[in-house]
Amino acid sequence: MLNQRPSISAFFPAYNDGGTIGSLVVTTLQTLAELTDDYEVLVVENGSTDYTVEVLEDLARKYPNFRYLAHRQALGYGGALRVGFRECRKDLIFYTDGDAQYDPRELKLLLPAMTDDVDVVNGWKIERHDPFHRIIIGRLYHHFVKLMFGFKLRDVDCDFRLLRREVFDSIELESPDGTICLELVKKLQDAGFAFAEVPVHHYHRTYGKSQFFNFRRLSRVLPHVAWLWWKLVVRREHMKKLKMKRQKVKV
Asked: Could you tell me the domains of the chain?
């Protein structure tokens, strides 16, 4: 476990999450205040058409440790994550989605697993609370990509993660959509970063619609999964870049 109280950034990508983002931010601020004196919460708003931005404006007026970035042109899920990782300022980065299907208070479960020899703490869903068709799609997708990419994690698509900010000195992310999670885990795994896994709860969606696990969206995502497989598994371009970066550091 970390020897001293760490500095933590928490961030959430948000797209049409006006009904959940306010309580998610406030709960996270309260949780971080219990864990450390050095923290921030960031929301990367991603072209919402509901009242998400109005909620964020109100939160920013009330909470000095909170800030947001609003993008009237949608970035895509991958674009929002890349912005969030780049903008976080603290030593540890925690992120989850803005739809509040995870409880940010369970960050308290992740933090003790961030020992000196661990770089990434990944949640895994104890039980998935989604419509039946989404559960089936999610399971098929999980087994498919685990086989394709050689993932060792129990739950690759659980977006409830705590990472050391320094891991992004070694990897660069490119994916524009939800496949960024595959890219992130694959590049971290191949770079030799150590993972720990912690069970977390998953809750029913109370507001908005899923932007990823539906048949129409997956039909567009699968070609990008194939493109990632070609780059990361067949050509392994990221490993060539990583080797060059590490050689420069040694010099």
From this structure: 7-250 (3.90.550.10)
